[in-house]
Amino acid sequence: MENFEKIYVNGVVVLEVNLTRAILNEAIEFRKIIEEEINSGQTQLVIDLSNCDYIDSTFFGTIIMASKMLIDMGYKLKVVIPTIVGESIFIHTKTPKVFDKYKTREDAVKSFEDDIQTG
Predict the structure, then answer these.
(1) Candidate from 14-18, 45-49, 54-58, 101-105 with smallest mean pLDDT
(2) DSSP tag of 46
(3) What is the Cβ-side half-sphere exposure of residue 20, based on CA atoms within 13 angstroms?
(4) Exposed/middle/buried for residue 36 (C-beta within 10 Å: 0-12, 13-18, 19+)
(5) Is 66 exposed, middle or buried (0-12, 13-18, 19+ CB in 10 A)?
(6) C-beta atoms surrounding 15 within 10 Å
(7) What are phi and psi of 11, to 5 degrees?
(8) Mean pLDDT of the chain
(9) Residue 82: its pLDDT value, please?
(10) How far is CA 78 from the centre of its chain?
(11) DSSP 8-state class, residue 81
(12) β-pair partners for 48
């Protein structure tokens, strides 16, 4: 299994993070993947952190960078954070409004459909 897997669902790119510890070394690779997707015009992006038990500040910064890139283009990042442990970093850093959080990948992907219907 690769560290990062791209899954395409109804026009949405899901970037699944297959790491229990998402840290500096992986953040560099992940940033390149995210930038490639956004620079190729992909605006419907979900980052799935279901497999992560720990996210360091560098990896978290990569997620914030992706969110900012999409916000600057008028879009919003969706992040799957299924556990309380995973969600704690987002609460402690006071960034709950930077991106939308979901408990499941399916809910995150469906939210793009909901955005279109309400937009």
Answers:
(1) 54-58
(2) E
(3) 0
(4) exposed
(5) buried
(6) 22
(7) 85, 0
(8) 87
(9) 78
(10) 6
(11) -
(12) 16, 80
pLDDT one-digit tens code per residue, 91-119: 555 555 678 889 999 999 999 987 655 55
Q: Which two tokens stand for residue 56?
A: 């360091």
Looking up tokens 């500096």, which residue turns up?
A: 24
Terminal Cα-to-Cα distance of the chain (whole angstroms): 37
| Rounded Cα gap, residues 1 and 12, in angstroms | 21
- Per-residue model confidence (pLDDT) at position 92: 56
pLDDT digits (tens, 9 = 90+) for 74-91: 999 999 987 765 555 655
* Residue boundaries of the structural domains of the chain: 4-102
Please state the φ and ψ torsions of residue 105, each to the nearest 5 degrees: -60, -40
The sign of the CA dihedral 110, 39, 56, 75 is negative
Only one residue has tokens 């556990």, namely 83
4-102 fold: Transcription Regulator spoIIAA (3.30.750)
Q: Where are the beta strands (DSSP E) in the chain?
A: 4-9, 12-17, 21-22, 45-48, 54-55, 78-80, 100-102
